[in-house]
Structure formats: C-alpha cells, structure tokens
Amino acid sequence: MTDYAIVQTGGKQYRANPGDTLRVERLTGDVGDAVELDDVVLFCRDGDVMLGKPTVLGARVKAEIIDQGRGKKIIVFKYKAKTRYRKKQGHRQLYTDIRITEISLDRRRTRGRKVDGS
After folding, report:
1. Which of 45, 63, 90, 116 could form a disulfide with 98 if both were Cys (CB 3.0 to 4.6 A apart)?
2. Strand 74-80 versus strand 59-70 pairing type
C-alpha cells in the first residue's frame, strides 16, 4: 500500500500521494519555493489509517510550487426578464500547481483516531 494523506487547502480537500501534482487554490510563494500544508484531515501509512479531529496533529505534507497561473475565463451573466436588467462579468480563478515531495508524521505530536481497515 502506498502512503497518502487527505489535505485541506483553499476550502477544498485533495488526496496527496508523494510525487503527485495537484492544482490548488492560489498559495503565496514563487515557482520553486517549498510549501508545507498542515491541515491534514486523514493520514494513511502501510494500511494504518488515522482520522483527524479535526486534523491529525504532527502530520505534514511538503510540496514544491511548480507553477502559478490563472484558469480559463468563465462568463457570469445575470438577466431578469421584463426589467431591462442585464449584467455580464468575467472571472478567472487564480491557481497554484504543486508537486508533493514528502508526507510525514511526527509521532510525538500525534492526535487522531485510528480507523480499522476492515
């Protein structure tokens, strides 16, 4: 079994495996910088699953910023019939591409529930 973690950033949750590339909401930093994500909701190592309450203490996901950018443009169009109300607006979401380099657990600071695999 591979090690993985469920990490929360930008109001969303992502499954992080070492070596994976994720597109997340904008994180501060430049391309090549190291980022540490501390909001680990679930941690799995060798089939042992630890569920956080609300997060697993001592669990960290280290990543490297690969790219910063803006997503595709979406059009937000509001319209009300018979009242001459029309509003057209565009939006491009900011994102950061990160590569997961390491998933670690500090056993001294661990707090969480162990979940049976069965």
Report:
1. 63
2. unpaired
